[in-house]
């Protein structure tokens, strides 16, 4: 707490003054946290003074609040490119990041608990943003981005948390996620220079080579890079008392068709269920094998979960128990070419009869982006459902292409897109099925435009080889593991002993 107060004083975060008439001072509180290393050992004890921003009034204490953070698909793309191009990867942390942001509004705060002042009747007039303020994240991003832009970095139009610096044959990349910064590139001198500049302005903590970032564990050697959430998974199993459970071969039973049956959970159990689903959503960033099972619970039953839905969530945990260290593997020797698989399960929802869109996109041999999501509208045929899935995949391929173009690296076009529905391929390639397609929204015909412009080459594939089935339906154990092997996942840890 003393260190935090000293940092606030050094940064001139506030000045003591009398509260002007008509103004209201918001409260603040201390928040304590124990920081851990990736192996679970204690790193340090942390105290943070946080303003109670929920007492702020819009239009008076704040205006805009949005602040961009890095997309996790961008993170996976960066790690894959850094692995294939043999770039240096460093991690930085900004001390008291939000304190560096300025304030455009007059915000007054009560004296912090434990802060001794000779004038206890005065209040703090904030000169810098403070943790907890609604505009704090926005002000910090504005400060950092303006600094990077002034030092010859450009902001990516595809992801506004991505900054790049191109000079001759040199490339340096900065990815920002609030106060966590990932720095990579092929020029060690530029990495050292920008690190020194950041430290002189923001007091940067250099954490060395990237090993643990946003809960992701990174292990790198000469063959490639492994990205997993092993500690996150084990903590989740420990908190839900599932460490002693028997592992299951699949995250969801093949015969499972979730219905609003069973007894409704009470408020405490329902709250725990929603918290569990939220944590499982974050786990899908390195575990695409549970994406369909988690999405199936999200779409229908978060608002009113029952005991049967809780059992499905517990089965996912039992599946994770068998392979907590499973993660994505990015190969060193890979080629820069996008390859995608698109699929749909027509009218699979028994209550709404909506279809499920699934796609998986690879850069070389490494999986970069995937989706399992229920479609917004009801499709009249399997061809229409597949066509909508193709449109969603085309949008993701276009966005990934923009990311690759920012790096100015040579990559192969067109991207290859595989679909197992010949009728959908014909609709996308030709403009003759007017009677069948006139009710489909215009935006779905985006796939035709991308094919004509040479961005995508659409090819057929047999249903038995369709790798995206794992994102659209529950599969039997043998089929599940066949498709699982195509996701490029590895477990570099020894298995848990068990029972």
* Total beta strands: 21
Shape: globular
List low-pLDDT spans: none
Please list the strands of the largest sheet in the order they lie side by side. Answer: 7-8-9-10-4-11
Oligomer: single chain
Describe this structure in words.
The structure is a single chain. This protein has 499 residues and is α+β, with helices and mostly antiparallel strands. The protein has three domains: 2-214, no CATH class; 228-325, no CATH class; 335-461, Ribonuclease H-like superfamily/Ribonuclease H (Nucleotidyltransferase, domain 5, 2-Layer Sandwich). 32% of the residues lie in helices and 25% in strands. The chain has 13 helices and 21 strands. It has helices at 2-10, 72-85, 136-149, 188-202, 230-239, 267-283, 291-301, 307-322, 382-406, 422-429, 434-437, 446-452, 477-484, and strands at 14-17, 28-36, 42-51, 88-94, 108-109, 123-126, 154-155, 162-167, 170-177, 180-185, 204-209, 212-213, 216-220, 224-228, 326-331, 337-345, 356-363, 366-374, 412-419, 456-460, 489-491. The strands form five sheets. It has a six-stranded antiparallel sheet with strand order 7-8-9-10-4-11, sandwiched between helices. A five-stranded antiparallel sheet has the order 12-13-14-15-21. It has a five-stranded mixed sheet with strand order 18-17-16-19-20. Helix 7 runs antiparallel to helix 8 and helix 9 (382-406) packs across helix 10. The relative contact order is 0.11. The mean pLDDT is 87.
């Amino acid at each position: 707490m003393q260190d935090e107060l000293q940092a606030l004083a050094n940064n001139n975060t506030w000045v003591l003054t009398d509260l002007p008439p008509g103004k209201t001072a918001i409260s603040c509180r201390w928040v304590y946290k124990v920081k851990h290393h990736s192996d679970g050992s204690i790193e340090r004890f942390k105290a943070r003074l946080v303003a109670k921003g929920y007492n702020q009034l819009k239009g008076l204490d704040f205006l805009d609040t949005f602040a961009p953070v890095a997309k996790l698909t961008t993170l996976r793309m960066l790690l894959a490119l850094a692995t294939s191009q043999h770039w240096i990867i460093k991690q930085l942390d900004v001390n008291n990041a939000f304190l560096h942001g300025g304030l455009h509004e007059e915000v007054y705060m009560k004296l912090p608990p434990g802060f001794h002042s000779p004038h206890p009747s005065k209040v703090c007039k904030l000169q810098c943003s403070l943790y907890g303020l609604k505009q704090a994240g926005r002000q910090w991003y504005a400060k950092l981005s303006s600094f990077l832009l002034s030092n010859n970095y450009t902001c990516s139009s595809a992801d506004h948390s991505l900054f790049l610096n191109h000079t001759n044959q040199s490339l340096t990349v900065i990815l920002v996620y609030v106060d966590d910064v990932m720095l990579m590139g092929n020029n060690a001198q530029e990495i050292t220079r920008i690190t020194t500049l950041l430290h002189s302005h923001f007091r940067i903590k250099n954490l060395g080579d990237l090993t643990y970032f946003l809960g992701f564990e990174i292990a790198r050697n000469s063959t490639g890079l492994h990205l997993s959430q092993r500690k996150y998974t084990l903590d989740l199993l420990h908190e839900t008392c599932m460490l002693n459970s028997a592992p299951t071969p699949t995250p969801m039973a093949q015969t499972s068709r979730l219905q609003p049956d069973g007894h409704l959970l009470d408020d405490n159990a329902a709250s725990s269920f929603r918290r569990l689903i939220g944590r499982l959503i974050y786990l899908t960033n390195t575990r695409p094998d549970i994406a369909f099972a988690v999405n199936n619970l999200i779409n229908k039953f978060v608002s009113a979960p029952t005991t049967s839905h809780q059992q499905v969530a517990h089965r996912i945990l039992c599946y994770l128990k068998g392979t907590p260290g499973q993660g994505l593997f990015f190969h060193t020797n890979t080629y820069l070419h996008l390859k995608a698989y698109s699929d749909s399960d027509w009218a699979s929802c028994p209550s709404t009869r909506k279809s499920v869109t699934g796609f998986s996109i690879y850069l070389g041999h490494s999986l970069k982006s995937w989706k399992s999501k229920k479609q917004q509208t009801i499709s009249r045929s399997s061809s229409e459902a597949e066509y909508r899935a193709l449109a969603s995949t085309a949008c993701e391929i276009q966005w990934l292409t923009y990311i690759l173009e920012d790096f100015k690296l040579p990559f192969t076009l067109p991207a290859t897109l595989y679909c197992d529905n010949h009728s959908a391929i014909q609709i996308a390639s030709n403009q003759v099925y007017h009677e069948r397609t006139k009710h489909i929204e215009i935006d779905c015909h985006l796939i035709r435009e991308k094919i004509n412009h040479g961005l995508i080459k659409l090819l057929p594939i047999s249903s038995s080889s369709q790798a995206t089935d794992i994102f659209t339906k529950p599969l039997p154990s043998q089929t599940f593991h066949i498709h699982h092997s195509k996701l490029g996942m590895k477990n570099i840890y020894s298995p848990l002993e068990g029972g």
